[in-house]
Design brief:
5 helices, seven-stranded mixed beta sheet, 7 strands, single chain, 32% helix, 182 residues
Length: 182
């Protein structure tokens, strides 16, 4: 059974879903699942996911060199194309507007040698007009050797902390914007 660091906010049936990242890597070393319910439309949530082009929206003091992630939508960031940089170490691998973003660790990025090959799909599942589930699946192929063994130990709790904060930030920002518009 999965440890608590591998799954947060996601039901067993949501773990069994097919995610877009699955098409990019066969037999990953590990998979992690995260999820949150957001009282906002898929379009609002998707616009916030596009903000990952400029900031990680987790703990800025740690994950963004102290720069605050924008708290308002930046014009034009939702004009996305496969291959664009996201969060400085990822590139956009695939997307479907208002449905999902799939990011892959850029092999030229600093963190690639440290973490290994990784993909994350952020999937928006509409529950009704003003409520969605934002699900994330992370799949990893760790570096071989001692570094890979260390990453297997520290990545799950580290990612749990960072991605939990990220998803909760997207929840708060999306719900705030939905209230403003509605």
């Amino acid at each position: 059974m999965c440890s608590s660091f591998k799954v947060w906010g996601v039901s067993p049936s949501e773990c069994e879903l097919s995610y877009p990242c699955d098409a990019f890597m066969e037999a990953p070393d590990a998979a992690y699942y995260r999820g949150v319910t957001i009282q906002a439309s898929a379009a609002t949530i998707f616009r916030w996911l596009c903000q990952l082009r400029v900031a990680p929206y987790s703990y800025d003091w740690l994950d963004n060199m102290g720069r605050k992630s924008p708290r308002e939508l930046s014009p034009g960031l939702d004009a996305i194309e496969v291959g664009q940089e996201f969060m400085t170490i990822f590139e956009l691998a695939a997307f479907e507007e208002n449905r999902h973003l799939t990011l892959r660790m850029n092999p030229d990025a600093h963190g690639y040698k440290l973490f290994g090959d990784g993909l994350v799909s952020y999937v928006i599942q509409t529950e009704n007009e003003r409520s969605c589930r934002l699900l994330a699946k992370i799949i990893m192929r760790f570096p071989r050797g001692v570094l890979g063994q260390v990453m297997r130990l520290i990545l799950p709790p580290g990612d749990w902390i960072m991605m939990r904060r990220q998803l909760l930030n997207f929840k708060a920002l999306s719900e705030r914007d939905e209230l403003r518009s509605g």
